Every structure is written in structure tokens, then in C-alpha cells.
């Protein structure tokens, strides 16, 4: 699997910085708010692995954080730096399986909706965890218990997963990755209730502050189930 070539071409063909709308935009916004709520206030040096649209840099630089946006595609890194220019923002083109940083380089690493695309997710966690300082944190979010849909590719006549998602995760699998990566412990959260998302409740809930939305979302997940996302924090 030529994943490097795939994601370089993916960045050239599709615009990660394109404006979203509707339920998709609101779901992404809430996921980002959820991730940001897990970043400690005293955290300074943060790596955004697979930076995509560089939303982390945009949100965290005004808080005085130093952000390293990494991506396997040069196009995404260049756009990230153009979108959020700052002396506290640098970009690095690299593969997360072979990071060009010393071990224990970052206070925190964020990998949002990336692990489901990786060839070997366990090694992915291990490589990122090695770059986190002692007492630091690795934050990963991904779809929860996703039922991966496939299409038959017209070019190669093979089954192709939608959105290039090649793995599905639950809390036990993700916790095991942390154990294998020799992190101290992990903690997971479920969020983004599917009933609220597909019921288009964002039309009303988009006006709610994150703290109130989080309570409503947690209530629906507890009573009806069907969370769309899982976030796991690995503590070094």
C-alpha cells in the first residue's frame, strides 16, 4: 500500500481548507472543541499530526501555544502556514511513522481523525507517544465503532473503503495501543451523538455554548447510545 503517494495525491486533488456547511460543519466544530477542552492550560509546545486544515494552530496560537503542524503532504503544510502565519507556528512535512524529532520533544500531540487512515495504528500510537515528554499527553480522536462502507473501484476492480478509512476502533483496542506504547495510563471519552447529528438538531444546538452542548450530548449518549466519536488521552 503506497499510503504516502496516496495522501500526497489526495491533498493535491481535494481541498482540506474548503468551507464546510450544515451538520458536517457543526460536527467537526464540536469535535474540535472537545479536543481543545482536553489540552492542558500549562501546555506550550504542541504537535498537530496530520494537520489537515490547521485548525489546531488557528485555535491555540492566540492562547500563546507553539504549534508544529505536520503532514505527509507539502501542500497541506504550506497552506497551513499561509492560513495561520505566526512566529509561534512552524510546519514540517513528514511521516508520523518516522518523525524528524527527538524523543520527548512535545508537551502534547494531537492526532484528530487520522488513526483510522493509518496502515498500522498500533505503531502509529507508539511513534507519536515517543515524541511526547514525560508527564505530557497524546490526544487521539477517531470515529467510534465505525461500520466501514466499501465501493468497487472502477480502476482496479477491488473493494475500496469510503473516505479511506481502513480501521474501526473501540475503547479496548485504543487502550491496548497505549499499553503497547508504554504510556502510563489512558482515558477515553465518547461524544457526538448520532441521533443529534442525523436529526439535524445543529440548527438549534449550534447556538449553544460548548459546555451546554456537551451536557446534552452526554445525556443522549447515556440514554440512547450511538456516539459517533471516541477521544482517548494517553498520559506519559
CATH classification class: Alpha Beta
Q: Low-confidence parts lasting 5 or more residues at pLDDT below 50?
A: none
Strand neighbour order, sheet with most strands: 3-2-1-4-5-9-8
CATH fold group: Rossmann fold
Strand content: 25-35%
What is the first-to-last residue Cα distance?
A: 31 Å
Number of strands: 9
The CATH architecture assignment turns out to be 3-Layer(aba) Sandwich
CATH 4th-level superfamily: Vaccinia Virus protein VP39
**Domain unit count:** 1
Describe the overall structure.
The protein has 236 residues and is α/β, with parallel strands linked by helices. The chain has a single domain, classed as Rossmann fold. Helix content is 36%, strand content 25%. The chain is built from nine helices and nine strands. It has a seven-stranded mixed β-sheet, with helices on both faces. Helix 4 links the parallel strand 2 (66-71) and strand 3. Helix 5 packs across helix 6. The protein is globular and about 45 Å long. The mean pLDDT is 94.
